[in-house]
Amino acid sequence: MLYLICYDITANKTRKIIHDTLLCYGEKINLSVFELSIKENKMQKLIKDFSALINPKTDTIKIYPLKSLHLAKTLGKELSSEYYI
Question: Is the dihedral of CA 38, 41, 47, 49 positive or negative?
Answer without folding.
Answer: negative
